[in-house]
Structures are given as structure tokens and as C-alpha cells.
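User: Hi! I'm working on a homework problem where we have to compare a predicted structure to a textbook description. Could you give me the structure for the chain below?
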Amino acid sequence: MYAPRPPPVSPPPRIDTERYQDREDNPVRRTADAPVSTFSIDVDTGSYSNVRRMLRQGRRPPADAVRTEEFLNYFRYGHRAPNSTEVPFAVTTELAPSPWHAGRHLLMVGLRGYEVPPDALPPANLVFLIDTSGSMNSPDKLPLLQQAFAQLVARLRPQDTVSLVAYAGSAGLVLPPTRGDRKGEILSALNGLQAAGSTHGEAGLQLAYATARQAFVAGGINRVILATDGDFNVGIVDRGALETYVADQRAGGIALSTLGFGSGNYHDAMAERLADAGNGHHAYIDTLQEAHKVLVDELSSTLLTIANDVKVQVEFDPARVAEYRLIGYENRVLEEADFANDRVDAGDIGAGHEVTALYEIVLAGSDGHWLAPRRYDPADTAGAVHRNGEIAQVALRYKRPGERRSRLLTTQILAQDARTRPSDALRFAAGVAAYADALRGGRHLGDWDWDDIRTAIASGRGDDPWGLRGELLGLVDLARSGIAPVATAQSPERGRP
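Assistant: Happy to help. Predicted C-alpha cells:
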């Protein structure tokens, strides 16, 4: 006699504990009340690839997972490069009619850092800080991480050093500082990692920074690269305390970049904020192709910082610009007084990085207003005559690496420079911004729908050697099939999350 076979036990339902920072879109500003807009630059791209992962999984991304500036900065727009390294980046502006609302304009502000070939990078002291906790035991986490870092190892030079610190229930030095040409030893240590235990992030960070200090290269690149699903649950778990700790280490010349992996418990807010505090770059790796983009194609910009604490301040002339809104950069907005305060931290630009920001503006006298007119308007209509047709000034402050005082760079935007039609670059950027807005509910798109978004991206696609812009068209189709129609001016609530 045999006992009856017990019924199969279904696995427990998967609990999604992914975390995203709450955020609200930037408000419309009346220029007469607030003529100055100030923000820190952002070169992160993690939001774009993370949302791409969700769409491919058939999931609707949470609205707070969508950061428009990271969608914009995922792509390159061919902004003008600087003429020399004396000024580490050049500024490009373009003004053209807004495609989704008659009577408004889009202002694009672009920065581009000078290029440094990978073989011309200074010696690099890199510490791979790798999460080997039990939560990393998934094909899209530790195995993908190992393959991703192997691509970077292939680019190491004899003058570089790499160390490997793993952390789970306890932290450990898996590989002491090792010359970059000893690739076999590095890959063997990397491939021998296994996932198990809880996540002692504090101990891992402390050991990684101690290892980086041991191999510190004066005048070189000194960087910890943290690879994790973002789950810190042992040691310092308060995000503010972790940010303070990382910022203290940054002051000693060691930067921190973060790479996010996996799904289910990805702590996006933690990974992004730690990279900000560490003067680093945050990316999300969902495929080997993305790993190649971040760690090979963009190696110079990922590793070498050419300008610190880069801030942008746009001052609009109230006589010529009635209203404006900054598209994205919500968690990078600064107070006006922060612009000239060199103690206020801001974003950094790496070699070859491009940064793109968009404003939607209403020119004085047009019919595209968001806000009802006021009876008493303090706009200086007479003063505009004496400013040679300027509608705005773009000012930037930045520090050269190692310097404590910022430098100032300004450029003026003239009304007569406005285009009647946007360039391909601005048309594509507008399509990217609209795609991000549609994923968040489409509150700012007028009567545009998914067809209009796709048409704008396709018409501005231009040169696409890596297929990234073509891939975006496919993501638009995925989003359109899984999300209700975007809101329109006639039905403002339709499509909201």
C-alpha cells in the first residue's frame, strides 16, 4: 500500500517591493513672479532602461519610476562639442514652436563635455562592490552582473587596478587591488561569486572605500562601482545616513557610481540617491547590450569626471516670456541662491557626456497661456527694448576637478533666433519627453496621442547607428498596447495612473 500523493504545493505569490521616490511634475511658473529657474544637471539614465524592462515584461511602469530627464539623457542629440579643454563643455540652445500646443514654444538647452578616448584615460583605481545577497539569486541579477562586469574587465589596462568586494550576511574582500592586465585572476574571482544571505550594505561600503583608499591613485580615477538590486537591510538602512556617509567619502576623492539589476525588490530611489551623493552616475542594466553601452561604449563618461557641481540657471525676460515650465529634473531643482553658493552640491559631467533639458514657454502676447491673465502685470515691457531682443539668459556654474570655486559661463537666447520648425534633434527630444509624459498619464500633451508621439520620434530619428532610437519606437508600441489613451485637453483625467 502506498500513501496517496500529496497535492502539489503552489509557490507563494511573488511580492513586489520595488521602491520609487514620489514626485510631482514641475509647476507652470508666471515669469513676472519667478523669472529665474535653477537646477542641477543630471546624467543618469537608469529610469529609461528600468522602464524598458517593465514594458518588455508586460507591466505598466509606476508613474514615479519615470524621470523625464533620464529619458532625455539616454540619447545623444549631436550638441556642439567644446573647442578646447579650457572650458570642459559647450552650450547649445534651440527655440522652436511646441509640437503639442499652438502658441507655445520649446526651448532646448544642451551641454556636451569634451571627449577623451578610452586609451587616454588617466590610471583607474576601481573597486567593484557587488551585492551577493540571496535577493540577487536570479538570472537577471548576479549572472547578468557577472557578464556585464566581464565586459569592463576586457577594457582594463596594465596601469589600472581593480578590486572586488562582495557583501551579503557579511562583507569580504574577494580580490585585493590587482593590475588590469591580470584579467584571468579578475574574471576568476568575479565568476566565483554566489548569492546567499542578507544584505549588509554598510559593511560592504566601508570595506570598499577602505580598499579604494589603499590603492588610491593621485591624479587618477578613484571610483567604487556598486552593483545591486538596491536592497540594503542590514547595518545603516536609513537612506539619509547612507547618503551622508557616501558624501563624506566623496570629499576624500573617491566617487561612487551605482548599477541597478533585476526586478521584484529593486530600490531605485536608494541607488539613484547614493550615486548623486557620490558624484557618480546611476544606470540600470537590463540586458548585455545595455551593459556594453554603459561600461564599454560610454566608458570615458562613466569613469572620468571633467566638471563638478554643474548648475544651470535660466533667467527669462518677463517682457518677452509670460510663462514657462521645466520638463523633468524635479528632484534636481535648486533655490535661486544655491546657484552661486559653491557649498551646494550638484551634478557632475563625464568626458563626452551630453545633458539635455527642455522648457515649454509662452511668449508674451501669444495665446498659449496656462494661467489666467492678471489685472496688474509688473512685466517690464519697456526694458525689453534695451536688451537687444533677448528673451532669456542661460548661465552655468561648474568646478574643475580639484577646484573649490566655481566658474561662470553665460549665453543669451534671442527672439530672432527662434526657428519656425524644430530641428530633427529637438523634434526627437520632444517625442522622448512626450513618451515619458504619456507614461505618467499625459497631463501636458494637449491633444497629442500615441500616434503623434510615434510620428515625432520617427520623423526626428535621424542617424541611428546603434539602433537605440528604432528600439524606442518599439517601446512606444508596447506602451500604447498596455496603457489607456493619454489624457487630452477635453478629458484631463483619462489615462492617469
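For your comparison, note the following. Confidence is low (pLDDT under 50) at residues 8-13, 488-497. The CA atoms of residues 110 and 419 lie 16 Å apart. Good luck with the assignment!
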